[in-house]
Amino acid sequence: MSKIITISREFGSGGRELGRCLAKKLGYAYYDKEIVQAIADKTKLSEEYVNSIVEKRPFSMFPIHTGSSFQMMTNPIDDQNQMIFREQCNILKDMAEKSDCVIVGRCADYILSEKQPLRVFVYADMDYKIKRCLGNQGEEEALNTKEIKKKIQSLDRQRSQYYMFFSGQKWGDKECYDLCINMSNINMDDAVAAIAALV
């Protein structure tokens, strides 16, 4: 059976970089934006469109759960959300079967729960996240501290709602993860080495 590590992360916490560095150190496959591309290919929807909704709570009155078929009425938006999530489940399961891997986001910890992945949640203090986002800004963004804080709060809220909507579980709740790591005062290399040693 493949070894699987799932990384859930607050925006700006460094979770994506940690996942990429961890995969490199362990020699595992790394999946992140590749998942969105694969969903777009399967559904024939644009990658930009899939990316715009893949971590946002769908606009529906009812939650969508894997394998659930109950539906009050047909709604094209709900149908599309279900299709995208179904494809996401299938793609993640296929990726997990191929080789040892690190998967960032996309409810992977929930979708792949039967495969018993090492579930990691990466978070950080707001000051750390703001500083990290300021350092990673492209020239086209140039947001100030207040705008970045608002963006972080908005994206984390969307991720939380998305996770709750599809899994019925609370995003960031320690009971949903095997390891929660606060990156605020931890060197990235040290964090990677510690998790690699645990694996």
Describe this protein's structure.
- With 199 residues, the chain is of the alpha/beta class.
- 51% of the residues lie in helices and 12% in strands.
- It contains eight helices and five strands.
- It has a five-stranded parallel β-sheet with strand order 2-3-1-4-5, with helices on both faces.
- It is globular, with a radius of gyration of 17 Å.
Give the SSE layout.
Blueprint: E1 4-9, H1 15-26, E2 29-31, H2 33-43, H3 47-53, H4 76-98, E3 101-104, H5 108-111, E4 118-123, H6 126-136, H7 145-167, E5 179-182, H8 188-198
Parallel strand pairs: 1-3, 1-4, 2-3, 4-5
Helix pairs in contact: 1-8, 2-3, 2-4, 6-7
Comma- or semicolon-separated keywords:
5 strands, alpha/beta, 51% helix, 8 helices, five-stranded parallel beta sheet, 199 residues
Summarize the structure.
The protein contains 8 helices and 5 strands. With 199 residues, it is an alpha/beta fold.
Strand order of the largest sheet: 2-3-1-4-5
Q: What is the CA–CA distance across the termini?
A: 14 Å
Task: Spell out the helices and strands N to C.
Answer: EHEHHHEHEHHEH
Q: What is the structural class?
A: alpha/beta
Gyration radius, to the nearest Å?
17 Å
- What is the mean predicted local confidence, pLDDT? 83
User: How many beta strands in the DSSP annotation?
Assistant: 5
Net shape = globular
Strand percent estimate: 5-15%
How much helix is in the residues? 40-55%
